[in-house]
Design brief:
single chain; alpha+beta; 16-stranded antiparallel barrel; two-stranded antiparallel sheet; 22 strands; 18% helix
């Protein structure tokens, strides 16, 4: 390959030759033509020598690059071979090749042996055939700890609710104004590989005792079919099963689910979502517990739930995309007699201690001789709709519950019919949009310490709820008609303020209207057909 240096290089070389007039002192007389020819010849020789050196350097560099690339390809092939051997089932591995006597082992055999011993390969770090997953922490829907492959997860939530209640009339007893803590909860949930999910949660209720709230395992082969067993929410009533208490529009549930909902029980349940998540179902058997967490019943309640969103994937009816229609019900039997809990207006409690009696108005107390005993069943039909900042929830319930008196014949039982409904409407006026009842993220949060002076999210709400029991609750001696009523209605009007996604404040006026006068204070004989509650709840949840 020929090579010729530019003229500038020739000129520079000529200038560097000895005797050039630019170098030295006095100017010399012009040299003869023969001297110039000799100098030019010397420059050409140097030029040729430089060109040969440059070409040699190029050849050496090209050879080295080719060798490096070939070595890289060899290493890559050996790595793929080793990877296939490691990942392949044992029955698919080729038989080991033993070298002949005096013959050195092949590279592939040395690679396999080194890999089996965990030794370095080709100057690399040792290959760990069973690497330990790395743990990472995130703040995402609570505190999340998970392995880098997301196979193992532990998520931690905290819920705290504090109520300030003012009852009017103010001289009721045992109901009284004051500060109450209806719920403090710690949630631990996650998964033990992708197919097994778990949930364990503890609660301190208004009674002031800590107890197990949830404890269950969920086998999840697919979204369409899952099996949950353990203590969990019973899939009866949209108010109970669809969303948790921290996402309510009003502070508490309507009258029927508040007093006759199945809450949480231990059982086995199949559930899932079908038709591209448009249909949600759940069906299972539960212990039928009415109070506490111990299974004191020898039969099981059969429970079923369906929720259908018919326009979820419809572009033509986008305004109805988050319309929910559904039905739920249960059928069971109370075998062991249990005292009935008082019927309340503003507190869900599975016990009847002093704190529970003080934190809510009561419109019916069962007689001490009355027990829940016998068959029970209920049916609920719900409609819920979410669009932009609007929430609409409604549900109608009807049921039949068995009772008996301790001083009566064992075979003499009374079935009391119970019916109720509620309609709840919520509207955000600060621009938030929702598709269900879940965590609300304000468009303009209120955080002046961070330079954010927005109003937070503000939701106006109103609710009407009603319940009625059959007259035989009085005629069969299960309750005193001179002190209590079998019919009640409540109206809630207020607003919710979300300064940020973790904090929520409820401001609620609840007006209760009873079918007949109830005993508000047994000590003074105070009676009344109405009861007002001015209610502030402060909640944080993360």
């Amino acid at each position: 390959m020929g090579y010729r240096l530019p003229h500038a290089v020739l000129i520079l070389a000529a200038l560097l030759l000895p005797g050039h007039p630019a170098i030295g002192g006095a100017e010399e007389p012009p040299a003869p033509a023969a001297d110039w020819e000799a100098r030019l010849k010397a420059v050409e020789e140097r030029n040729r020598a430089l060109a040969e050196q440059y070409e040699a350097l190029l050849r050496r560099e090209t050879e080295q690059r080719t060798q490096v690339e070939q070595r890289y390809r060899d290493l890559e092939r050996k790595y793929e071979t080793l990877k296939q051997q490691v990942e392949a089932p044992p029955e698919l591995l080729p038989p080991a090749l033993e070298p002949e006597a005096g013959e050195a082992s092949s590279d592939s055999m040395r690679v396999s042996e080194a890999a089996g011993r965990g030794e370095p390969l080709f100057g690399e770090e040792p290959i760990d055939l069973h690497p330990t997953p790395r743990l990472e922490g995130l703040f995402e829907d609570g505190f999340l700890l998970q392995t880098d492959d997301e196979e193992l997860q532990l998520r931690f939530h905290v819920l705290d609710q504090t109520d300030f209640k003012v009852f009017v009339p103010g001289n009721q007893s045992p109901t009284r104004s004051g500060l109450y803590i209806p719920r403090v909860r710690f949630y631990f949930e996650g998964r033990l590989t992708r197919g097994f999910e778990y949930e364990v949660s503890l609660q301190r209720s208004v009674e002031g005792t800590w107890d197990l709230l949830d404890g269950n395992i969920n086998l999840r082969p697919s979204d369409a079919f899952q099996i949950r067993f353990g203590r969990t929410l019973v899939p009866y009533s949209y108010d109970w099963y669809d969303h948790l208490e921290q996402y309510f529009i009003t502070p508490e549930r309507g009258l029927f689910p508040l007093n006759f909902g199945l809450s949480r029980s231990a059982g086995l349940m199949g559930h899932g979502r079908l038709f591209d998540e448009a249909l949600q179902y759940a069906v299972g058997g539960f212990d039928g517990r009415l109070q506490g967490i111990a299974d004191n019943n020898t039969t099981r309640d059969a429970v079923g739930y369906l929720n259908w969103r018919p326009f979820l994937r419809s572009d033509r009816n986008s305004g109805l995309r988050y319309l929910n229609l559904g039905v739920s019900g249960f059928l069971g039997q109370q075998v062991s007699p249990r005292n009935g809990l008082p019927l309340r207006t503003s507190l869900q409690s599975s016990d009847n201690d002093e704190a529970a009696e003080a934190a809510s108005a009561v419109f019916l107390k069962f007689a001490e001789e009355a027990y829940a005993l016998g068959d029970r069943s209920a049916l609920a039909i719900h409609l819920a709709w979410y669009r932009l900042g609007t929430s609409l929830g409604s549900e109608f319930q009807a049921g039949r519950f068995g009772f008996a008196r301790a001083d009566g014949p064992e075979t003499m039982r009374t079935t009391v019919p119970v019916s109720g409904f509620h309609v709840t409407l919520g509207q955000f006026i600060t621009g938030e949009t929702i598709t269900d009842r879940s965590m609300v993220v304000p468009v303009r949060p209120f955080a002046p310490w961070n330079g954010e002076y927005g109003p937070g999210a503000i939701e106006l709400f109103g609710r009407y709820s009603r319940i009625q029991l059959g007259d035989n609750v009085f005629t069969e001696g299960l309750a005193n008609p001179r002190a209590w009523t079998n019919e009640a209605a409540i109206t809630d009007i207020g607003l919710n303020w979300y300064p940020n996604r973790f904090v929520k404040l409820y401001f609620d006026w609840q007006h209760s209207l009873f079918g007949s006068e109830v005993l508000l204070n047994p000590n003074s004989g105070l009676r009344g057909r109405t009861n007002d509650l001015f209610w502030i709840r402060c909640q944080f949840y993360f």
